[in-house]
Write a structure and sequence with these properties.
Mean pLDDT: 96
Number of domains: 1
Order of helices and strands: EHHEEEHEH
Oligomer: single chain
Largest sheet: 5 strands, mixed
Number of strands: 5
Shape: globular
Low-confidence stretches: none
Strand content: 15-25%
CATH class: Alpha Beta
């Protein structure tokens, strides 16, 4: 697995897909309404990435495999301080649908471990939506541990 920096055109495609996916996940999780989700996701990205692909301490990578260096997905991570140590925080890992269930997510995260070590980072952190049980199971098999869980319970409003 090669982690190759994105070009501007790759970043543009990545951004559109990532913003749309993030908006959809926030709707599915019940945190945002569908009508506001895309605008909120775009605002989140602008806030996190004031300089786009060139925002300091953020890396945008294309996942490539084989002699032909076939693109199979993408990875966005940033260096952050967590628990008083620098870590790689994964904002987005995406495997193209036609390449899923082939071990590419595991290979990409294992490659990121090596990159993080080389950058002097003490670990890799990520977020996974509660409804994404397949991803949660994968991360747990890879040695990630749960650090916190946000929960929600709807109640009926008075008078409804």
């Amino acid at each position: 697995m090669l982690l190759v920096p994105m070009t501007d055109s790759e970043f543009e495609r990545f951004s559109k897909r990532s913003v749309a996916d993030y908006a959809a996940e926030k709707v599915r999780s019940g945190e945002w309404s569908e009508s506001e989700s895309l605008a909120q996701a775009e605002a989140s990205f602008r806030s996190l990435l004031p300089d786009g692909r060139r925002t300091e301490h953020h890396w945008f990578l294309v996942l490539r495999i084989g002699a032909q260096q076939t693109a199979v997905g993408s990875l966005w991570y940033a260096s952050q301080i967590r628990a008083n140590q620098p870590v790689a925080y994964v904002y987005d890992i995406y495997i193209d649908p036609e390449h899923r269930r082939e071990g590419h997510a595991v290979a990409a995260l294992n490659a990121l471990d090596l990159v993080a070590q080389g950058q002097g980072l003490g670990g890799v952190a990520l977020h996974v939506f509660g409804h994404n049980s397949a991803a949660r199971a994968l991360y747990e098999r890879m040695g990630y541990s749960t650090t916190n869980i946000h929960m929600f319970k709807p109640v009926s409003r008075a008078g409804s």
